[in-house]
Automatic annotation (TrEMBL):
<protein>
    <recommendedName>
        <fullName>Secreted protein</fullName>
    </recommendedName>
</protein>
<feature type="region of interest" description="Disordered">
    <location>
        <begin position="49"/>
        <end position="77"/>
    </location>
</feature>
<keyword id="KW-0732">Signal</keyword>
<feature type="signal peptide">
    <location>
        <begin position="1"/>
        <end position="20"/>
    </location>
</feature>
<feature type="compositionally biased region" description="Basic and acidic residues">
    <location>
        <begin position="50"/>
        <end position="72"/>
    </location>
</feature>
């Protein structure tokens, strides 16, 4: 019982930190609807074209995004165009910008 008393606050603290790290999520269903694909198709294209762990680690260490500031990954756009040929990099970027979560204020 004594261990449980100490474990509960620790669990609460670590769980809260895990949720805080993930931050706000993109509204995938709304984004998919706006670009004319299903939510499952959008998620699969993101999954298939996500940066590797090594790319993410290198980007974090250099202080840059893994895909730079150049816009959407061409492979991601190509994947989405298989489901909706009318999607362009510009239209996708505009929809993503519209749904970008606001960053919390830094103190």
């Amino acid at each position: 019982m004594k261990h449980l008393i100490y474990a509960l606050p620790l669990i609460a603290l670590t769980t809260g930190a895990a949720f805080a790290q993930n931050g706000p999520r993109l509204p995938m269903n709304e984004i998919a609807s706006e670009i004319g694909v299903s939510e499952a198709q959008l998620k699969q294209c993101f999954k298939d074209n996500a940066p590797s762990r090594e790319e993410m680690k290198a980007a974090k260490e250099s202080g840059k995004r893994p895909d730079g500031e150049r816009g959407p990954n061409p492979e991601l756009i190509s994947c989405l165009q298989e489901h909706n040929p009318e999607i362009t990099a510009e239209s996708f970027k505009a929809v993503m910008k519209e749904h970008r979560p606001e960053r919390p204020a830094q103190n």
